[in-house]
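Listing S7. Sequence submitted for prediction.
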Amino acid sequence: MSTPSNTTDSDSVWVAVSLGSNLPYLNRSPRELVLAAMESLRCLSLESHASSVYLSEPIDCPPDAEDFINAAMLLRVSAKTSAREFLMVLQGIEADYGRQRGSLQNQARSLDIDIISYGNQELESPDLVLPHPRATQRRFVLMPLAEIDPEMVLPGQAANLGQLLAGLPLIENVQIDA
């Protein structure tokens, strides 16, 4: 695919996002929530590319946590929107789909949308780190993104998504959710 996924021009920037859910909300299953959120994200973008939907075992979650539904998208958005502003928009979408932020990390959630990369930006602040600090270690992030653009290289990385994915140990069970 020839998507300039981690480049920018003067008018737009490509943003990679990862979506996940393992908690129903308002009679919608986690799969339905992820698909609905993907539709919301399409409405925000000038152009978008989406992965398939994946089923993933929970990582670093409480023992009784349900499996996650995951997906990824590449979104071309206006360069006038900063990464922090875009994060606020994503948090608004999460709230629209029932996301409640608690003090516990990795708890069950109706919707989680993470910015994996925002153009070529590298940023480290209390509320946002770019590229996402654990993206290269997580099959449930890399597999959907590599499906869209295996040649994409995250800022600060030498290897592309396909190479990073091939180098991950097979400890996570991630599969396309048919």
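Caption to Listing S7: primary sequence and predicted structure tokens for the chain studied. The domain at 12-176 is CATH 3.30.70.560 (Alpha-Beta Plaits). The chain has one domain: 12-176.
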